[in-house]
Amino acid sequence: MSSTTVDTTALEGASAPVTVDPVTVEILRNALTSAAEDMNATLIRSAYSMIIYEGGDCVVALLDQNHQVLGQSAGLPLFLGNIETCSKAVEEKYGRDVWREDDVWILNDAYIGGTHLNDVTIFAPVFVDGVLVGFSATRAHWMDMGGKDVGASMDSTDIFQEGFRMGPVKLISQGVETDVVELIQTNTRFPYQTVGDMHAMVAALRMGSIRMQELVRKYGLDVIEAARDEIFRQTEELELERVREIPDGVYSAEGFLDNDGINLDVPIPIKLTVTVSGNQIEFDVTESADQTQGPVNCGVAQAISALRVGYKILVSPETNSNGGSFRPLTVKVREGSVLGAVAPAACQWYFSHLGMLIDMVSRALAPALPDRVAAASHGDSMIITSAGFDPRVGRNWVSMEATLGGWGAWNGEDGESALINNVNGSLQDFPIEMVETKWPFRIREYSIRADSGGAGRWRGGNGVIREYEFLADGVFGLWFERSQTPAWGLFDGNGAVGPEVVINPGTPDEFRTLKINAQPASKGTIIRLAVGGGGGYGAPAERDHEAVRYDVENGYVSAERARADYGYVHPE
């Protein structure tokens, strides 16, 4: 068994190089990940909002004193890729000496964190015997940030319409809550729920701090940092080797969003150029559209995060991300573009082009990595929001739900049906029982949407149909995307069917829309959501007829489509 020697003489309290054996490295690797999982469990069990405790719209991480990721929980990939930017922003603004024990900071600025204002990051320094050893960080979705519409707006045109913007500012100073807490309570329509989620996040921070302090006291900071360096080295070495396997060259892909929610007839181009040279890879999105009037913009940090997700899917999907990840990767984003927005650009639905961008990485590199790439997924969160007064309990409600869709197929496997989009990772849809208990809805149907996945040797996954009936008056909003450029196939696989939404189907009041804001809904209103599928992989003519028979008999493909796409006639 070999050991790794790391020179830590420059670190406080270290006087000589520290040797760390592989067993200790693995123990600490897993201990840091377990500490993050403890944080995540604390947050989810303590949260007040269903979007956190049931949906899991949150993430936690432990960072070292240089803001590099040591351990992180499962969560939203787009959160994990840039949570460290928040603690860095504090140092950039106030200097390294700003950190104090028992302080907690908060930030939701869309141009720093990269997401929308509802995604709030709370983080704290971790000290052991007066020495800064790292940071504990959490991010979670808060249901209402006091914008012009309850919960969220589908038609905002600047950041000021989207709610209360913070940070980086102190939430807790030396263990005492600051006036920022009162500002939060004053600027949200649901202060009890919001502050409850805030306290859950602080509790998760404390759990992270305790776990990190335990590890430092047990092993010593010098051993932990030596193990950290070895973990980072291993990760970097693995990724450099994987990138080196990609043939050198320039690869490209392009996609279009339907619109920005304001200018409904203007598609938004997203362009990606990938350059591979040796063990280095560059993603360039500078030719993408300028920032838009409507709320589909994001900060640079979020564009980088999405491209990291696309990179990781192909380069190192089996390993956890840490401070050694992404070192072979360079990202170019143009300031003032839809992927590098500056104030006062609206950012509420920042993720629509990011889901597309993740799939575009595979599309661009498909010629070089045919056995690693997948066809496109349905690609968007497909959001429905609602709000109103619930007469059953005598109080107001607000909801936000992501709707499931189909993922793309790849060489050897069909795409999965009814999954959350790739942006949201381990986010979960809300069970019917929870929806009907918490809010005045009846779910009339929840089913697989047959024929929505693209045909191919390997079939794309199907989307879903979910139908709501309002049991009380209220309002609703929709943000559905990718109808004009639904999920594409690869290597002669067919593209998928895009989304559709029908309001009051089969009645004189029926109408169709994909994006709408604060639409009044009387008791009895029906909303029928149909989400798109994933693209197919390989020519449909090459699909095994037994697989087609299985699809028909289990409702994934209709007999008509089986005949048209595969030449298969199902026996009567």
Q: What is the count of β-strands?
A: 22
Uncertain spans: 1-15
**Biggest sheet strand line-up:** 4-3-7-6-5-8-9
Largest beta-sheet characterization: 7 strands, antiparallel
Distance between the termini: 65 Å
Estimate percent helicity.
25-40%
Overall SS class: alpha+beta
Strand content: 15-25%
**Tally of DSSP helical segments:** 13
Rounded mean pLDDT score: 94
**Measured on Cα atoms, how large is the radius of gyration?**
24 Å
Shape: globular
Describe the structure in your own words.
By secondary structure, the protein is an alpha+beta fold. 28% of the residues lie in helices and 23% in strands. It is built from 13 helices and 22 strands. It has helices spanning 22-46, 50-53, 77-80, 84-94, 110-113, 180-186, 191-219, 221-244, 300-315, 352-365, 432-438, 545-553, 559-566; strands spanning 4-6, 18-20, 58-64, 69-72, 104-107, 119-128, 131-141, 169-173, 176-177, 249-257, 268-277, 280-284, 329-332, 383-390, 395-402, 441-448, 464-470, 474-479, 500-503, 511-512, 515-521, 526-530. The strands form five sheets. The chain has a seven-stranded antiparallel beta sheet with strand order 4-3-7-6-5-8-9, sandwiched between helices. The chain has a five-stranded antiparallel beta sheet with strand order 16-17-22-19-20. Residues 1-15 have low confidence and may be disordered.
